[in-house]
Amino acid sequence: MSKVIGLTGGIGAGKSYIASLFEQKGMPVYDSDSEAKKLMNQPKVMQQLQQIFGNEVIENNSVNRKKLASIVFNQPEKLKMLNQLIHPLVKQHFEDWKSKQTTPFVLKESAILFESGADASCDFIVTVEASTEVRIQRVVQRDGVSPEEVLARIQNQWTSEQRVAKSHFVIDNAKKQNTEIQVNQIWEQLLKC
Length: 193
Prior knowledge:
By secondary structure, this protein is α/β, with parallel strands linked by helices. The chain has helices at about 15-25, 30-40, 45-55, 65-70, 75-100, 130-145, 145-155, 160-165, 175-190; strands spanning about 5-10, 30, 60, 60-65, 105-110, 125-130, 170.
């Protein structure tokens, strides 16, 4: 049975880059956020999203995630409804995926690992850190959204302090060369477990 390494961090902290470094070491990676997006586009789930959030969230037979995000990131009760629908689906999908893995460790990457309660199924948790300014800059460049939109998303996630307090390892992802050293150090420690 593979041990589960949870990988989290605020939006724009660089989780995907860190996940790719662990993947290069032979650790299978489950990207909760991208799997959630795929699960959202299943017909039954789209129907439920349409009932909860209205017809405008479905466009060309798929979820318009920008419209959905504009609804849920400004209304905490709507975000809670979305999470209650999607989190159980992702949890089950992850368990099915994990049961097929044969490596000593698997990595579960999730922006909202703690918020979703997924941390409960992790053996170790790694948090990726970067300054708010760096995170905003990265997301603006990556997603083509305004700094205000990024800030709204940041405010819907746990703070760095909250994540760090519940993590076994913390990676400062400000400089890439330092990041790789930190990943190697964590990898060495995991191999001793």
